[in-house]
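User: Can you predict the 3D structure for this chain?
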Amino acid sequence: MHGIMSGIGDALWLIFTFDANLLEIVFLSLKVTLIAVLIAALIGLPLGAWLVVNRFRFRRFVISVLNALMGLPPVVVGLFVYLMLSRSGPFGVFGLLFTPTAMIIAQVLIITPLIASIAHQSIRDLWAEYHDLLISLNATRGQKIKTLLWDGRRALLTAGLAGFGRAIGEVGAVMIVGGNIEHSTRVLTTSIALETGKGNFAFAM
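Assistant: Here is the predicted structure, written as structure tokens:
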């Protein structure tokens, strides 16, 4: 019990003294995650609205695939991105492996289906109310999507927050493609895993 209380005390000291290593890790985590959420939202939100507005042959299949991708194991995504960005991969020439950019790419692939699926469910209910009005106004497909996204912005905030929560807590994929390199790709989750393994519970907490 004494060891736990001592660890908590040391952890609070690191926070209140603005430890440089701790702040570096926190800021990098927020930077990577917020950029990933922004990109995923720019893709996922319009995609969710587009699936609501459009009717095509394989629409239900696409929605089912999108929902299934929500449960895709992050380590699988990490391995896929690793293979794509490695020297022998098709994008190896860009030298992105073990960089924050690689971590952002992995997080975008993980959270885009989540954001798109939640957006689709939220906008589907709104579309039921707006359908007749937008049809009577002879709105174009783009105008329908913009209207639904704007009027459903509060509900869609939930999708963004869900994506942020999933991304900020991700460890498997970012460990694979980022490498947990000090002062370069070390983020909150990878730091916690590393410091816990080293027995440095104060920094982990």
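The chain has one domain: 20-198. Residues 100-136 form the longest helix (37 residues).
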